Amino acid sequence: MSLPIPPHRPVWVPGVHGYASAKTVHAGERIAFHISSDRSYSLEVCRLGPDPDSRASDARVADLGLHDARMQPIHPGSYVHVDAGLPAGQPLAGLTLEAWVMPWRCDGPRQALLTQGDASGGRSFGLFIDPDGHLAWQLGEGALPAASPLRASRPLTPRRWQHVAATWDGREAALWIDGECQARVGPEGAPRPAKAPLRLGAAGSAEGAGAFADVDLAMVAIHAGALTPEVLAARVRERAAELPMPDGLLACWPLRDGGGDAVADVGGHGWHGRVVNHGTRSILGPGFDAAGAQASHTKDSAPAGQGLRLASDDLYDCRWHATAHLDVPADTRPGLHVARLRFDWEGREAAYDITFLVKPRAGARPAPLLVLCAMSSWLAYAATPFARNQVDDPVWPRRSTGLDNSHPEAPAFCSYTYHRAGQPSYFTGLRMPWPNASPAALYDPAGSGFSQWTRLERRLHAWLEREGHAFDVLADLDLHADPAILARYSTVVVNGHSEYWSLPVVDAFDDWLRRGGNALVLSGNTMYLRVSFDADMSVMEQRKNDERGADPASAALRPPAGPYGEERHAQDALRGGQLRTLGRSAASIIGLETAGWGFADAEDFGVYHVCEPAHPFFNQPQALGLSRDQTFGHAPGGGLPRAIGHEWDLSVATLMRMTQGSHETAVLPEPPRGLTVIAQGRRAPGRMDTYLDWHSRVCEPIDGVSAEMIYWERPQGGRVFHAGAVGAAWVVGSDPVFEGLLRNVLHHFGCEPGQPAG
Hints:
Layout: E1 16-20, E2 24-26, E3 30-37, E4 41-47, E5 59-67, E6 79-82, E7 95-103, E8 111-116, E9 125-129, E10 134-139, E11 150-155, E12 162-168, E13 173-177, E14 180-185, E15 198-200, E16 203-205, E17 208-210, E18 215-223, H1 229-238, E19 249-253, E20 262-263, E21 273-276, H2 293-296, E22 308-309, E23 324-327, E24 335-345, E25 348-359, E26 369-373, H3 375-380, E27 395-396, E28 427-429, E29 442-443, H4 454-467, E30 471-475, H5 476-481, E31 491-496, E32 500-502, H6 503-514, E33 518-523, E34 529-533, E35 539-541, H7 586-590, E36 593-598, E37 607-610, E38 631-632, E39 646-650, H8 652-658, E40 675-682, E41 690-692, E42 698-699, E43 705-713, E44 719-722, H9 736-748
Parallel strand pairs: 2-25, 26-30, 26-31, 27-29, 31-33, 32-34, 33-44
Antiparallel strand pairs: 1-3, 3-23, 4-5, 4-24, 6-15, 6-21, 7-12, 7-18, 8-9, 8-15, 9-10, 10-11, 12-13, 13-14, 16-17, 18-19, 18-22, 20-21, 24-25, 28-35, 34-35, 36-39, 36-41, 37-38, 37-40, 40-43, 41-42, 43-44
């Protein structure tokens, strides 16, 4: 578990919210539920049943009874806490506070940069950004009154690095921005710090840390005397490339610590700190803000991180107390479960589901088939964790920009949105609510009935159970924690929207295939973007970044991204973004590569057209009676659900045909040998389409081809059936032809109904 945080301003979110102590749990183990509720509720645990569109088919595992209202606060806002500080109450003969700062906003609530203050605002000592963007110095007890801080004559500039300093020479206080004096005053009496911790990016308040800053910080330092104008000018020219001179240096936090929460003081006095609520490392520091810096930065250079990014809405662990627990019976069947809360909401009964996965009991013999849940993708889309409760099934907007928030200060960001002040979102917390993972959650377009995450993936689970297949269910998170698990299985299904993969899982999957594994991929946009996790798997990191040389016309169509140069993960210093930039092209492992996304209307979903009617998958052991160009992957009569939409994958050969002209950052690959396209997914153009060529440049589709279904006997070992579309699992249960195809594929891979485990 994470360390307790120092006293911190609480935010009380109305409604009912909760999360489980783990996303996955073995049968026979205990799982806890952490719930905050402003009203009473009943609580039961259910295994999801055969009907994805109804809770009535879910099987109750345990009744955990009635619970009274118990609200638990959240504590958003990242900053650096330093226990040590300037001697309290003693007049200061001389002092300089300095830092490099890039404000993400210069309006709104007051922001603290470097403070040492107690619960009384009149005794807060340090640098602030006032609501109008002006730099302000609160000199503390014995100096200026609290209502009259020293203020700069001009505001700071948002989203640009600036050097700020406050000096006191024993007679006069001054404020500086980029080496230019902005204000001077001779206070009555020398400033005195309060007895309180030092904070970078926050200030003390009656409720604990508050006044959180939305800033990037670098090279924060405290000096025992007043730096001269000449020294300050030199510090501006250095752009944080050099440490301050040791003479008179009390503390210096370069904020180049890499990953983790520890913040080192190199000033010699050991005033080391700790990042509260994570923050963001590996950002572009002041040295990369100068003209032409990005042009000189190469993708293979050392990490460019020279600072720490703070956000007033940073939160990755609610730290709520457990309010209920369940000892999962040892004989529980593996599968998706929920802790289901029922309560009154605006005069009607509402349900709130906390989704988790029950795995086979530890040491159990493996089933013939393993089905993977794409939980890394569920997490990436986990916007608005404290969404306002509602009775009807929620429909999440495209790219999961979120539902209505239950509180204006509650975090709402995910991997597809920005922080409230505009900072890129690189991290997702696992100890947080994820209402998007509810089995009731739908996804745009509202009229289609389409979903991703839990509701999509369980369709395959229900079908396999009806067919009589014995199968285990694990999350990709489980493979990251223990990649060796794969070796226990001969056939694995990659299900749903399996977009985000960690390098250990990618490498383990490729190695497993090389040793003869059989992969059945019912996913699109598969194995596309890289994630990593911290040591205790409580925070997931991903980094989408603007690419140098990318097509400007596609900028508005790409997911939200950080600036070019911030692509390296703080947790392992390796590049993020697309896996193929690290030499792990999905096409080289599972035969297809991401080729686009889109849809705005239900009519935009397309269907498969047969290319190879004589292929064994269409004929053995069940003859499906298909002819060339005959359609499947749709409900009877061509209605919804239809498989081809949302996101899709294509073969290298087809992507080569779509790729026109050269590109500075990549060469064209050779199409894999032995790969057969057995069907093409075609769809009519939609209002929100983005088709991508091999270089991820916007292009036009060829004859409406959006996805391809392949069989590939890999020369390096392993066999792959890949459906190439996120909606593939959506049609399971609606299309008898697609179900017959799955039966044939499973037969070909040696999986038959009724096979025992082991």
